[in-house]
Every structure is written in C-alpha cells, then in structure tokens.
Amino acid sequence: MGQVYEKLQRCYENVRLRMEEMHSTDFVPKVAIVLGSGLGDFAETIRVEYELPYGEIEGFPVSTVPGHAGKFIFGYVGEVPVACMKGRVHYYEGYPISDVVLPIRLLKLMGAEILFLTNAAGGVNPSFQAGDLMMIRDHIAVFAPNPLIGPNIDELGTRFPDMSEVYDKELQKLIRRTAREHHIFLQEGVYTQLTGPSYESPAEIRMLRLMGCDAVGMSTVAEAIAANHMGMKICGISCISNLAAGMTASPLSHKEVQEAADMAAPHFKKLVTEVVQGMGAV
Ligand code: HPA
After folding, report:
1. Would you state the pLDDT for residue 40?
2. What residues are in contact with ligand 1 under a 6 Å CB criterion?
3. What average pLDDT does this structure show over 37-47?
C-alpha cells in the first residue's frame, strides 16, 4: 500500500474510533460540504450530531489561515445527512497536495456521494461584482499541482480519469432552479485554481480572462479532481469577494475578501441550505 493511501486509512480508522466513542457509527453523510473563507455561517443551519476538530484526528492536516477554524460538523440539513468541513487546508500553506485532498477522500470513505465545494474567489469576468455568487460549470487545473500525481490509488479510482463532466449536470440544474425559486442572483462560469498565496498580477488576470476563466482562487480544483477520481457527484459555488487584480483602483486584501464574503453570506447560506435539501432526492 502506498504512503498516501496508508495515511488516509489511518485517518479514517481514527475517525471511526471517535464515532464509536460518540455512538454515531451508523451516521452516513450523503453530502460533503466544504465551506470557503468567510462562508462558515452556513454551519448554523446544520442540526448537529457531533463535531470533530481536525486537530483531534491523528495525522490530519490542520489549517493555519485566520478565518479557517478547522472542524468537521456532522449532522442534518432538513432530512439530508451531511458532513461539513468548516475550514480547509490550502496548498500554499506548504502541505503536499495529497494532504490537501485527504479530507475529501476521507469523506468519500465515510459514505458521502455528493461533494459540494464552496470558496471565495476573485471575479475575472468584467460583468461580475463583489458579492455575486457564481455556480462553477467547469475549471482550469493546469496552474496547480494535480493531486493524482504519484502511484495511482487503484482502490479509489482509475489512473487516467475522464474530466469531461466534473461538475454534475443534474446538480447544476438543481442549483439554477433553486436560485431562481428564491430570487437569488446567480452567475455561472469557469473557476481557475492558482497556488497563491500571493494574489495575481493584472497581466495574469488578463491572461486568465483570455483563457476563458471567470473566477480565480486558491482552492477547490484539486479537491474536485480527487473527488471526480473517486466517482463522486460534484458541484460548486464561488462567492465573488472582489474583482481580480487590475480591475479596480484598490489593492487586494484578505480583509476585503472576508468582508465581501460576509456581505454575501445570507444569500449564500439560503442557497446552499435549499440546494442541499434538494439533494435528498438526487
Ligand atoms: N485571487 C485569488 N484568490 C482569491 C481572490 C483573488 O482575487 N479573492 C479571493 N480569493
């Protein structure tokens, strides 16, 4: 067994033990939700069964970024059992990319069939505004390391996975319909993951726009690749926290990103809650 898979198995056994202690071994999440920067408020809508701080799982990567307090929240949104990640680790923190996707793989081992990814992102499309929500239709992965590099983990998936429909069409319809029903304005587009931690230069943003990118960030794509490898159904929403570099007069700051995410939080929370409830029927 390879090192990456061994570490995953160890973390999984650790979580199972913790679940036994909490008499929750029969809890099987259907939907895994990853909450991006400043979008943690959504967690309030979960009827919590139990919480597990990442730091209590042996060997589990723990984030160092302010605003990314790391824990799993297991519980229900309506009738749908969910596993929510409040906080994620980023490649720019210095973790190997296999650690960045470890939590996603763990949630699949726990039984999650659907992965709902969220993030705060810079708007590259000039028609976007700070505070917009964007449903991810596709992504550009070529600027960040691929999490499947290394010996293939045959237990999880195939060596050369198809990537022609990473973001599930049915889930996209569900998100679109739900936004319409609740009068929530929804943009759609292509998300690109860069490594960060520095924001992009204006020239890089112009390059990304020419390539067909609508939003840019430092997460999500590696997680989507790992989940697609394992055959999960995937969807994603970006909260456009700022217009990308060179598109406004002011320089970018992490504070601004968090403030815009806070502004969009009520819409975001409503949309994610309603969509997850709709996933009960998927
Ligand atoms: N660039 C990259 N990542 C981001 C941005 C951005 O402008 N905003 C929020 N995350």
Report:
1. 76
2. 120-122, 199-200, 216-218, 241-242, 244, 252, 257
3. 84
Let me know if 93 is a catalytic residue: yes
Which residue CA neighbors atom 3 of ligand 1 most closely?
217
Q: Tell me: cis bond preceding 81? Omega within 30 of 0 counts.
A: no
Domain boundaries, the chain: 3-281
User: What number of other Cβ atoms are within 10 A of residue 122's Cβ?
Assistant: 27
**The two three-digit tokens of residue 54, written as one number:** 């990442």
Q: Which residue has the higher pLDDT, 166 or 2?
A: 166
Q: How far is the CA of 123 from the centre of ligand 1 (A)?
A: 8
**Average pLDDT value for residue range 129-139:** 96
The pLDDT > 90 percentage for the chain reads 78
Q: Check if 218 is active-site.
A: yes
Catalytic residue, candidates 19, 32, 68, 215: 68
Q: Quick check: 256 pLDDT over 80? A: no
Question: In the structure, what pLDDT confidence band is assigned to residue 65 with cuts at 50, 70 and 90?
Answer: low
Q: Is domain 3-281 in CATH 3.40.50.1580, yes or no?
A: yes
Check if 119 is active-site: no
Q: What is the dihedral of CA 120, 126, 132, 136, to 10 degrees?
A: -60
Kindly name the residue from 119, 219, 238, 241 that is annotated as catalytic.
219
- Collapse the DSSP code of 183 into the 3-class scheme (helix H, G, I; strand E, B; otherwise coil) and give the result: coil
